[in-house]
Amino acid sequence: MSKVMDPKAILDESGMNGFQIMAVVLCILLNALDGFDVLAISFASPGIANEWAINRAELGIVLAMELAGMAIGSVLLGNIADKIGRRPTILWCLVLMSAGMYGASHVHTVTEMIIVRLLTGLGIGGMLASTNAMVAEFANAKYRNLAVIMMATGYPLGAIAGGSVSTVLLQHFDWRAIFEFGAICTAACLVLVWFLLPESIEYLANKRPADALARINQTLKKMGHEAIERLPDPIEAVKTASHKVLFSDKYKALTLLLILGYFAHIMTFYYIIKWIPKIVVDMGYQPSLAGEVLVWANVGGATGALFLGLTGSGSKLRPMLIGVLVMSFVMVGLFGRGQETLTGLSTIAALTGFFTNAGVVGFYAMMASSFPSDIRASGTGVVIGIGRGGAALGPVVAGFLFNGGFGLQSVSIVMAVGAIVAAGVVFLLPSSDKTVASPLEATGK
Questions:
Q1: pLDDT, tens only, 225-281
Q2: CA geometry: angle at 248 spanning 246 and 254, to 5°?
Q3: For the chain, domain boundaries
Q4: Confidence band, pLDDT 50/70/90 cuts, at residue 38
Q5: Cα–Cα distance, 90 to 111 (Å, whole number)
Q6: Which fold has domain 7-442?
């Protein structure tokens, strides 16, 4: 047996093998599922508004409901993922998401839709926190930031695939078919996770359930590593991982700044993502064509995420993130000027998606690199959860502004301000080498 007894060190110092890559790819797929599930309501919104005869203010509330659920799910289920494990939390989230998507295809009122979208959002929020931690813990030290950013890239990829499918579905069926398709895909992912994705080795080494060593060795074997005889002596600090630690003197500034920055930028991001289909339909285009514009926004988003992942590693992440946030402000403002052709609108939407989504995944990478494993899911969950209040607020604020008579240009400029606020926050963030430490130090033990 290997003399190396720290499984985290084994993963950190070894190259990425096929099993680790499979685990990361599966998490990318799960995030792609999140991307489709979140934006399903956007693709369906023109049909819902027409069938139920609701105004823009009411539609804004419907568009925001799963985002509110995501906020709650990220905080509550992110903390649960640090307690019971990443894998069981992901499985339960998939159950919630499947039920919510299926339910959305069978509702008949705004109130019913609000309830099922809230349920879907709970699952998506917990999924985001859990997969962010899972990817960070399956990747080695060299490729950890890249793996997290690639995981976040799954979100726009899911929206692209979902948007393409939704465009076809809307040509033959009504808006309910979008949710039925999403429910089937979510249930399929539940089966994949059950059979293919084990618990994180780092989580098992920290929490020490009764069968921890056996489960760690089983996963190490699948990765091509030798078994270990025993685990390192446990660190008392792992028992202190909780929301209280996040707001201790050690982590308070980091946590609050990440929450503020993410909140501000995600408000800008979801204004664009949620309102594109309705804006395009109001310009006189068919709902299927509106879906195509949203697809192009997500093509830009996926490209922006890949760009940041390949060029923004290590010390380059902070300055590049500030740059894309500033450009997000510029592009959202340009989007508000409108375009005379659908091609021009799609081009501007793609460029806007490039910068706004690059900003989102940049924040994910900052979270994964800033919080230690003991509180990584909790920290990510709290930042995403509270920050997602901005996601929920964005479509609602825009809806009330539109309903109050403000034009597209004015609304876009107001909603773009969040990206500038986020850029200032990133500038103020403490360096990652000053924040990544054990909660042992944070609690003064």
A1: 888 888 877 655 444 445 677 877 788 888 889 999 999 999 999 898 888 877 888
A2: 55
A3: 7-442
A4: confident
A5: 27
A6: Growth Hormone; Chain: A; (1.20.1250)
